[in-house]
């Protein structure tokens, strides 16, 4: 009999260290797949990016003093503010910041995939022009 514990069946990117960017992308893709189908056409061109931490310029523009305070960011024009006259802009983008999410995960003890999903849905909510209450309802539906 071995004293070693049985190996765990972990997803790619879960190597005994903090999940890497690929694992975060996989969690984000899984979260997107849980959204109601009615939202799919409206987020088809939304870019989801994973970065380690927000840069000083972004933090300053948002009035955020510490980089661990920003777990996600929506950049673009909410659908509620668009008109048919607008075209040719850059695609809307949601950035998930890996290190601040990992810090929150450690501090709060929530499952990491659920935390990634929560941050992603919150940022997608900004894309739709949703209030915080709307975002909580969307998350409950997904």
UniProtKB/TrEMBL annotation:
| Molecular functions (GO terms) | metallopeptidase activity
Write the lineage as a comma-separated list.
Answer: Bacteria, Pseudomonadati, Pseudomonadota, Alphaproteobacteria, Sphingomonadales
GO BP, one annotated term? proteolysis
Answer whether the UniProt record assigns the keyword Hydrolase to this protein.
Answer: yes
What highest taxon heads this organism's lineage? Bacteria
Q: Which InterPro entries match?
A: Zincin_1 (IPR010428), Zincin_1_sf (IPR038555)
Q: Which UniProt keywords apply?
A: Hydrolase, Metalloprotease, Protease
Q: What is this protein called?
A: Predicted Zn-dependent protease, minimal metalloprotease (MMP)-like domain
Do you know which Pfam families this protein is assigned to?
Zincin_1
> Per the database entry, which stretches of residues form a coiled coil?
none
């Amino acid at each position: 009999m071995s004293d070693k514990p049985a190996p765990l069946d972990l997803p790619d990117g879960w190597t005994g260290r903090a999940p890497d960017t690929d694992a975060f992308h996989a969690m984000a893709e899984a979260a997107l797949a849980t959204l109601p189908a009615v939202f799919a056409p409206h987020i088809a061109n939304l870019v989801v990016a994973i970065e380690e931490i927000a840069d000083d310029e972004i933090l300053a523009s948002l009035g955020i003093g510490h980089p661990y305070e920003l777990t996600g960011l929506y950049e673009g024009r909410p659908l509620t503010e668009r008109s048919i006259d607008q075209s040719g802009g850059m695609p809307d983008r949601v950035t998930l910041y890996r290190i601040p999410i990992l810090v929150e995960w450690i501090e709060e003890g929530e499952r990491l995939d659920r935390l990634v999903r929560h941050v992603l849905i919150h940022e997608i909510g900004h894309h739709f022009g949703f209030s915080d209450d709307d975002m909580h309802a969307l998350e409950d539906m997904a």
